[in-house]
Structure formats: structure tokens, C-alpha cells
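[agent] plan:
  1. take the single chain provided in the ticket
  2. run structure prediction with default settings
  3. attach C-alpha cells to the ticket
  4. add a short note for the reviewer (M.T.)
[agent] executing step 1
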Amino acid sequence: MEESIGEIIESTKELFKSKGWGRNPKEINKIGCSWFAMTIAYEIGDEATLQESSQVDGDDILTPHMWVVYKTKCYDAETPDGVDDYLDLPIFKRMKKSDLKKFMEKRIKS
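[agent] step 2 finished; step 3 output follows
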């Protein structure tokens, strides 16, 4: 990988905008998160893994989303610097507080 992850995410956002697949990172996450995650994972290389909300949430409480995990950080169109916990991704921060609380309670129990 010659580019930094932030550079890969920024260039992929520009590509998506030019193709009409989202005007901004929030919209890209809403309508094309899986395409975006697969694209940046490919660019990062074999060490990048894809994660979906359905893999961590068997009760379908979380907003459906796909992101990339690389070297302990989570990345999507809105997080070029990555976050340590997927729940810190902006798409989950925008969830209704009651839904997020419900998920957190189930997460603690398991």
C-alpha cells in the first residue's frame, strides 16, 4: 500500500462523488457503504477485513452498515483517521439513543 489509509479514503470519496454515488461522506455511507468498504479494503490490501453490523448484532438493532477493520481501527467514508470501536463510527452515533442503549445492554451481557 503506497497511499495512507486516509488518502485512500479521500480519493475513493472523490471517485464516488464523481460517479454520483453520494454527494458527501454521510450520503456515501447511507447509499453505498458496502461498495465503499470493499473498494477501500481492496486498495489497502490483504490485511484489511470487512465487517458488517449484522456480524456484531444478531438482533438487528444497529443501522445496517459495512466498514473496514485494519490494524485495530475501523474505517468508513466518514472516518479517514479511523476509530478504535465500531460504535464510534458516525453512522452509529446518529442512531436513536434508545436503540443504541438497547444494543449496548445486549453487548455487555454477551
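[agent] step 4 note for reviewer: The chain has one domain: 5-109.
[agent] ticket updated
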